[in-house]
Structure formats: C-alpha cells, structure tokens
Amino acid sequence: MTKTAPNAVPFFIDTHCHLDAAEFDADRDAEYARAVAAGVGIQVVPAVSRDNFAAVAATCERYPGCLPAWGLHPMVIDVHRPEHLADLRAQIEAQRPVAVGEIGLDLFVRDLDYDTQEFFYVEQLKIANEYDLPVLLHCRKANDQLLKHLRRIGVRGGIAHAFNGSPQQADEFIKLGFKLGFGGAFTWPRANNLRRLAVDLPLEAIVLETDSPDIPPVWIGRGRNAPGELPRIAQTLAELRGLDIDTVAQATTRNARELLRLA
C-alpha cells in the first residue's frame, strides 16, 4: 500500500457529520477549516427531516468538501408526514445526494411510535432502491428489524451508522453490502463491545464518522464533537489494531469512496 509522503496529512472522509446543526452556528466556518487542515477532505452531511433540507443544502453549497444525504430520521418521527416522501424524491431530483439518510429505526427511545418509524423506513428503502443509492442507517437497538427489511428490499448497500451490535449482526450487514460506521463511542475505554468489534472486524468493512456535534470521543467528554476530531479517532483505531495511521486512513477512505461512488 502506498504510504503518505513524510509530513503529509492523511486524507479522511467523515461519513456522518451534521455540520448544518445549530450547535455550529457560531463557528461553522472555523470548524470546517479546522477539519480540512486536519485532512478531513470530505464530510457527508445527512438530513433529518424535510424542514432541514434547506440547511443541509446551504451547508453543502458553502463548503466544497461537504456532500448531502437526504432522509427522514426516526427520532423526529412526529414531524414527518406521508407527503414528505414526495418532497424527498423531489430533493433527490434537485440535488443528487451520495445516499438516502439519515433513515432507520430507534428502539432505544421508548415513546417513538414503532409502526410509524417502520413505515417511513420501508418507504425510504424503496426510494433508495428506485434511485440506486446507498442508505445511511440509524440503528439503535434495532439491528435485527433493520436487517429484516433490508433482506426484503434490496438496496445498494450503505452504512450502519454508529454500529453497536453483535459480531453476527455485523456479518449480516456486511453480507448485504454495508460498511459499519465507527466514531467517538469506541474511543471510551469501557466500550468493550465496540472496541472488540473495531479490532476484529475486517478493515475493509469499516468507515469513520464523527456524528458531529454528537457522540464525542473520550478526550472531549461531554463537550461538542466536531469533524476535526476524525484523525484522532482514526489514530485510536490504528492503535487498537496495531496499524499505522496511514493504513487506516487509506483503507477507510477507500471503503467510503467505493460505497458512496466518490471520485
């Protein structure tokens, strides 16, 4: 594998970053510049509802390294309406995304109506299939339910964002053409399951993400996460696997490029 030139900054792709979020309103330009300087050359910015399509579009227009994904998130299921699926199709037609997302199921938050979540998840899988796009999956406590529908509705792979399932579930996602997203959560020493997965899974199945401003790594604690933290997250992965940072950067970047069809 070709090594990065001495003193060169490795290239990284943050496959899940909400740079459009209000938490970045005060310093979005600075945080984007910090990420680029750290080698994070591409950030995938997923939408969460019809109402924030405009914010994601504006972010991706302002920052050349930001690429959009359009989707209706299960955690804000109360704001979605069936007619928003037509708006999603229109947005895909207007600005081709790298994926449909963030979509999925959430069984961690108990007051989210499951039937409604399932309806929007299934319909968005159909849309992804229709446009031959991968999906970015929100998958808290719902891996088996997500997999059930993925087997039924064949999509062109995707990313299981913030994956925290079993090795068996990981294998099932991989068989269906998915990569598994790893970010700040596995940097915490007590995240034993995630750290085992980070070591044991094939490197070709892993992509990196921050989920900024959420899921901060251990060195931030309870603070705001940001895309500029991705290289240090990658360094943690490299140390756990006994690899050099260039190997991790090149492998995870290649994985993301292939999945998302990035030049």
SSE topology:
Elements: E1 12-14, H1 28-37, E2 40-46, H2 53-62, E3 66-70, H3 84-94, E4 99-106, H4 114-130, E5 135-140, H5 143-152, E6 158-161, H6 167-175, E7 178-182, H7 192-200, E8 206-208, H8 230-241, H9 245-260
Parallel strand pairs: 1-2, 2-3, 3-4, 4-5, 5-6, 6-7, 7-8
Helix pairs in contact: 8-9
What does this structure look like?
By secondary structure, the chain is an alpha/beta fold. It has one domain (12-260): Metal-dependent hydrolases (TIM Barrel, Alpha-Beta Barrel). It has helices spanning 28-37, 53-62, 84-94, 114-130, 143-152, 167-175, 192-200, 230-241, 245-260; strands at residues 12-14, 40-46, 66-70, 99-106, 135-140, 158-161, 178-182, 206-208. It has an 8-stranded parallel beta sheet, with helices on both faces.
The CATH topology label is: TIM Barrel
The parts where pLDDT drops under 50 for at least 5 residues are none
Q: CATH class, anyone?
A: Alpha Beta
Average predicted local confidence, pLDDT: 96
**Proportion of helical residues:** 25-40%
